[in-house]
Amino acid sequence: MDKRLLRYLQIASPSLAEQEAGQLWDEAQGLVDLATWQDCLDLPDFYRRFHPYAANSAALGRLLAPCRQVRLLVATLGDRLERRARDYLDQQEAFRGYVLDRLGSYLVEQRMRGLDRQVTLAAQVGGCSTTRRYSPGYRDFALDANRVFVELASSGIPGLELGEGGLLRPEKTITALKGLTQHAGDKP
Amino acid sequence: MGAAFPAGLVFPINALPACQTVEQGIDTLCHDAELKAQAVLRYYQQAPADLLFCFSDIAIQAEAMGARLAYSPASLPVVVAPAPNVLLPRAAQVGRMGVNAQVLARLDSQFPGRLRAAMVYGPFTVAGQVAGEQEVLRSTVERPELVHALLEKTLALALDYARLLLETGAEVLWVSDPLASLLPPIGFWEFAGQYLARLLEVHAGPTALHICGDTSPIIGPMLQTGADGLSLDQCLDLLALEDALPPEVAIIGNLDPVEVLELTSPEDVAAQTNELVEVMGLLPNFCLSSGCAPPPTAPLANIASFLEAGRARWRQLAPHAQGLRDLAATVHAGQRGKVPALVSGLLEAGASPLLVLNSGLMRAIRKGSARYEVKQCHLPEILLMVDAFHQGFQQLEGRLGLAVDRPPQVVLGTVKGDVHEIGKNLVRIVLETQGVKVLDLGVNVEGRRFLEACQKQGVRVLGLSAFTTGARRELKKVIQLFRETGMEEVAVVVGGAAVNQQVAASVGADGYARDALAAARLVKGILARQGRAGRG
Question: What is the value of pTM for the model shown?
Fold first, then answer.
């Protein structure tokens, strides 16, 4: 297995755990129903749609201050993987349940990183620069802001729902935004 | 190395509670060979240990070298002033050393065939007493040559004293060097280890080395001294260290001499002794002992209970030790497919299901937890062990006679507004592998449901999981609800990605656990304390 992934899982190599995790890695790939969604809003429109969550976040305000537009990103693995992980735990298979869950987190984060890179590169080509990625739940940007992501993205990602406390279903879903400046010279 | 340290012995270190068997005080006992012999003989009649000591106090060598001691009837002599001039007498000419030699000789005639220990204190400890601990520790950095000069002298007397005691026919040389654990590990060999090695060389027979405190960073140099047995302090988890000790070196330990042997009842001593033997008695190189010397006030009934319980449990264990070792190693390696056959083999050989559970399956989990605590392994490795445990436990469950409907000891759940369950489920699984019955209320649980469950079931430990910052606020509400409704006796433990030590404190939790294993350790500690308080 990839050394970075093993480090992420905190599994030594070579080991029985590595062998078992390797099988789970294969299983995880088969349980992924990857879907992504993107949109771009002008900054005033972003604040209007994400009211009051965006306006209430001083940290987000600072991040987006030099920006003209905001790129919205969603990546999800669907819910088959997390259901399988839960099944393992219900069957008292703690290792498989835990590792499969971690692999799900790893995979969805990888996908989101891929989207993040795409947006950054596209912005560079267009002479813009981007902020770092920011998600609901970071600092004072309320998790409830996921409500707006779900409203906007649910048509593109069937099955995406808002759960209790602003959590998303499927759980292996990441929502994020990136600010875009008009010109590279306005780099935040 | 000398001869192999005899494995399978059961004994407390030293014989200090012997002072309870005579009317005279310790101050008199220290100087009177006849009285001391009488006390020690009576002690070992009531507490028939496998290795006999002569009631030795830690200050005996320092006094001989000029340090001033204070004696009292009720406590051991202590150094009150360092030596103004360092003396180097012959041991045979030091009155109190002669007393100890005479007592050892008497032990041989009274208990023929029983092993006796010549107990000597290490050169570094004695140097600290002779010149002042702070002074010596500072000098290891500022004037090391002075420390070495002093250590040569303390070593010379220790060698002479050891020879005097060994001449009585004592079979084992026992060296205690408690102050050596104050040295930084990097300085251990220079200022303690090399001198201990020279001291231990004096005896061709078995030798043992005891150093108090957390000696895990110096296990390597302790082995390098050539000691045939290492006596380890009660603060150490022997399971975390056993792989570091070669099979030819005895692992000696490590029941708590104060918290258990002095301060609990004979029944509690027996229970704790059983637990230690169930875990460590599988090893062919284990000796059951105390983690340090039981104090003079440790009840004789407790010492006797320790010896009796230890031997009895060991006898039950012995015929199955190899099978249990194999099972524990297999579970620890996470090889769940091999577990059922090993469990079946043990049961067919007549091992009781409880023994298979405690000394086979549970031992592996405990060892994993101990290694995890000292960062020798990570959570996934432990979870493999947990899965292997379950393979075996399924075979035993119906035979253990566990009450299926026994009441839960812990209520667990993820608080309202949060549906994360993986971490919470892991806590439940790990707790259950450790014999703790859990009522899992699931996710998104209202505070009132936690309260009702604890009230209805009489549970006094509540575990709350929170993954999101919103759920963090809910923690505080749940805890307040418990406090406001007179359920203060329920200990609330919190964990999850949204929680750390500071958050736990700010919401008023009684404990915080960063992961499933830490949670299990914390909860078991709380249950044990609650159990003791309930009995006491």
Answer: 0.82
> Which chain B residues touch A98 with a CB distance below 8 Å?
379-380, 383, 422, 426
Among A85, A163, A164, select the one facing B422 at the smallest CB separation: A85
Residues B385 and B432 in one domain: no
Residues of chain B neighbouring A95 (CB-CB closer than 8 A): 334, 380, 383-384, 386-387
Same domain for B495 and B469: yes
So what's the ipTM on this one? 0.88
Cα dist from B67 to B63, B126, B163, B180, B418, whole Å: 5, 10, 22, 19, 66
Residues of A in contact with B496 (CB under 8 A): none
**Contact check, Cβ <8 Å, A11/B378:** yes
| B64 and B203 part of one domain | yes
Give the CATH number of the domain where residue B349 resides.
1.10.1240.10
Number of domains making up chain B: 3
Domain A3-186 has CATH 3.40.50.300: no
Domain boundaries, chain A: 3-186
Are B423 and B405 in contact by the 8 Å Cβ rule? The answer is no
Nearest residue on chain A to B383, alpha-carbon basis: A95
pLDDT digits (tens, 9 = 90+) for B11-35: 999 999 999 999 999 999 999 999 9
Domain that holds residue B325: 321-397
Identify the CA nearest to A117 among candidates A103, A106, A130, A108: A130
Name the residue in chain B with its Cα closest to that of A167: B418
Name the 3-class secondary structure at A36. strand
